[in-house]
Structures are given as structure tokens and as C-alpha cells.
Amino acid sequence: MNIVQIGSNRGYDELTELIKNIDIEKLILVEPMSKFNNSLLQCYSHVKNLSIENIAITDDPFQKKTCFFLHQDMDENIEQGSLLESHVNKVFNRPEYNIENSYENKLLKIEVNTTTINKLFNKYDLINIDILFIDSEGFDDKIIKNIDFNKFNIKKIYYEDMHINNTDIINFFKNLNYEVKKHSNYNSVAMHNDHN
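RESULT FIELD:
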């Protein structure tokens, strides 16, 4: 199986569980923060053909670098990163995080290299993708809408639905012959009807 994850963080997540007993041909993990590479390598040590891309996926084919916003508390147990500064601030203003100090003091702005989803697929000669798993903190719909569905055949697309207009993206998928179902508390899955 060919599997791509956008927003891999440390690993040990829903994708890890989803593919733990699957024969993997290629696994491409996209995570702007290289500090998570060792954790990802440990998490997927059983995968022979594993690639980690320390880049951000944007919807601008001419953009080479962008700002990545990271919100981090002092002991690094709470972490939130996104291309959208407003998203990071919104999430960390939630009372359950109980952050005492001003969130502005904990917002890091880091320049990262970028590419588009289509360029990423082309780099790895991917035409047929079994699983695309996206967790890009509010940018999922922009990545999905940027995919060249005429060129790339994707069986299942998992995406975080809680920070986007899910009705809009469900309608987008329906027009492409995908059926969308709720997968977990945070994610939905779009399954192409030709592959179900």
C-alpha cells in the first residue's frame, strides 16, 4: 500500500493504529518540525520504505517558504502547530488547556520550506494512493481542494473535520464520487466509490 500522511507530528496516532497490520509499499510522512523525526523513525521502524519530509504543504505552487506557527507551553507537553496563526491562537485559548500566561508569549513563528500536495505525489512517483491522512490544523480543506484528482487516484482520504467547513468539503467529495463517513471524534474519511 502507498500511504501519505500530512501533519505527522510525533507519530503514535490514529494512522499508526490504522496501518499497523498492513503491508506497506511506501510511507511518506510530512512534518514541518524536524525535531519529531526520531520519534517518527521509532514509531514506524518496521516500515522499510519510509520517507520523512520536513516541509509544509501549501496551496501555492510558487511558494518556496512560509511561516509555521507553533504554540508551546513551557514543559512542551502541549503543542499546536499550523500555517494559520489564527487557528493556533484559537485552539490555545480554550479553557481546558489551562494556560496561565499570555498565549502571545508562547507563540513561535518559524520559517519552513513548502511544496504542494501534487508536487509531493510527483516526487515519489505516486499515481495510486491507498491512504492519504491529513491533520494540518485548519488547512485540511485547502490541501484536499488542491489535489489533481484527474491525475491521482486516492482510495481513502482521512482528514480532521473539526476545524474546517465540513459540509463544504463533503459536497466537494460527493462531486468526485467519494462517500464521507465519520471515522473518529476528530476525523472523517472520504472513500472513493470505485474502490469500496
